[in-house]
Known about the structure:
The first copy, chain A, is mainly α. In chain A, 73% of the residues lie in helices and 0% in strands.
Amino acid sequence: xxxxxxxxxxxxxxxxxxxxxxAVLGLLREVGYDALTMDAVASRTRSSKATLYRQWGSxxxxxxxxxxxxxxxxxxxxxxxxxxxxxxxxxxxxxxCRMEQDTSLMRGLxxxxxxxxxxxxxxxxxxxxxxxxxxxxxxxxxxxxxEIRADNPALEYVPHMLIGALVVRGLVDNQPPTQxxxxxxxxxVVLPALGA
Amino acid sequence: xxxxxxxxxxxxxxxxxxxxxxAVLGLLREVGYDALTMDAVASRTRSSKATLYRQWGSxxxxxxxxxxxxxxxxxxxxxxxxxxxxxxxxxxxxxxCRMEQDTSLMRGLxxxxxxxxxxxxxxxxxxxxxxxxxxxxxxxxxxxxxEIRADNPALEYVPHMLIGALVVRGLVDNQPPTQxxxxxxxxxVVLPALGA
Lengths: 196, 196
């Protein structure tokens, strides 16, 4: 507990936080969620477990915040002036190599959530719901600009269209999702379904 | 080997085959793919391992053929005369309870394929590719009837749209896919994207 008190006095710098998140994601890629321990994170980052728990509360929260930290752009920050521009920006903000790494990480976590209710809750609250809110705002702007009719029934299915294509690309075509695939899918499926 | 020879003389009856597949799926639900052993299947069905290997070759093949056997309808058999009718038939051939069970089984297998290349191959060859061929035929008929333009770019993404929605329903909405959801998604997304 002495250690925790010491840390409570000194704030973690953004550089140190970034270093820590990178170590967490590295471990996650190496051993997966279930085998990842707070001990291993503490040891690799030369911090104490008390520090980790004080700062993040739980392994689930630490992992999800590390994922959130590495995201290059939040949907909420995208606003190109057209729906097509916004959606293309959404899928081209990560290069293909990063997208493949992320898809593989998320696939691992998608398995782990079935055994870890706290991971599912953290993923929903910290990662998924903010993105959904950002996507809703993006679509609302398109409705206000007159690009989509407000009563178009496809509006509520945009998350299913986008996340679905990303997730099943490997299964259907035996290759990872790429910017080119997602951009073409947006033009061929998402925008026509929205009547945009 | 004496046992295998005996069995080679007597053919397995369709009733016995159905009973065996039901036992395999039961075990799969209980313990998952990795923990399922040919020993357990042999013991539960009062057959010999030699019989199982002679008839099915491998655990992967046995499991995938059991999955294929329980499918109520093959896509290839659906032909209602309209694309909308065909797609609705496709998603209403299973009741919601069965669909939930199947989704949970397939989720388990989707995890297992990353560790078991022979399972992935068997799933592709015995289950997935025949379904894709049936779907392609369904879409070709719609093109021939003039319901879809042959050059519509959404044609190649129909599997992504359909399987994607099924797979991510739980993640996006925190509830299992149902007939009502899939039927509404087909009307709101798939048919409009195809211009049908």
